[in-house]
Amino acid sequence: MPPTAPASTPRTSRLRHVAVHAAFLTLLPALAVAVGPGSTAAAAPASTARTSAVAAAAPAAAAAAPRIRFKTASFNILGSHHTTGPGGFADGKKRARLAVKFLKNEGTSVLGMSEAEREQMRIVTRRGGFTSFPSWRKSTDTQTAQSVVWKPQVWAKVRSGRFVIPFNYGNSREQPMVLLRHKASGKKVWVVSVHLQSGSSKAAVREREIGMQRTIRQVKRLTATGNPVLLSGDMNDRKRIFCQVRAKTALLSASGGSWRRGSCRPPGGARIDWIFGGKRLSFSSFRYANSRRINAITDHTVPVATVTW
């Protein structure tokens, strides 16, 4: 179920998006970020000799590093404001504590989290020993609603940024992307967490389609940096998102499926939460976690997988 984002004025929204755009371009000159509803992301600028050398060296360095293995997930935690009042789920803070127990039991070291509000991310980071982007301390509920989460003992943040998609009928939502370095091996991976618009109305389908295409453009640009991409999130779609990602990027689905010469076959039993990864990332032990504990936390099943690189 999608969170309800407060409407923002066009001028405020534009100013915020411009600030986000400028900040990220400072961090990653080779990446152009789409900002604001209706805007089109520009192609990444032509690389200099130095940029080309770095991009070319990244795959070789990664290949030389030792093989690593880690657990990942896509977790729609169900926002606190969805469960206020009598009946239904427990309050958001209690469910966040249950989520921490689940993640610890799974041994998850990096994941994408959807619908998480600030009070929930505070618990996930403090009690769970995780770090997240964006930081709950400096963000609104609609910003933490889509977060990249990782174990700082395993991963170190190299850089981070956001891109913007339309969300909740005329509003917009920032989607985070973080370049993480695996401390033991030195390998780097981009982690992108997205939440696309839900619903079957014409407006909802249009926003979801725009969000999908902007996500794909960002994935292609991040892939061009030479580091693999791990994409996860509540994408509110079963077939089209799979076929589009497989057709237009080098990512594979953790849950299987195939795309060959225009013939697309989504994995059997596909649901609306996904995990995709670059070709150097191989998946095993994929499942949708759906236990009594999960059912007490959220109205989604939770895709989890082991990644070998």
UniProtKB/TrEMBL annotation:
InterPro entries: Endo/exonu/phosph_ase_sf, Endo/exonuclease/phosphatase. Residues 73-282 form the Endonuclease/exonuclease/phosphatase domain. It comes from the Bacteria. Pfam families: Exo_endo_phos. This is Endonuclease/exonuclease/phosphatase domain-containing protein. It comes from Nocardioides aquaticus.
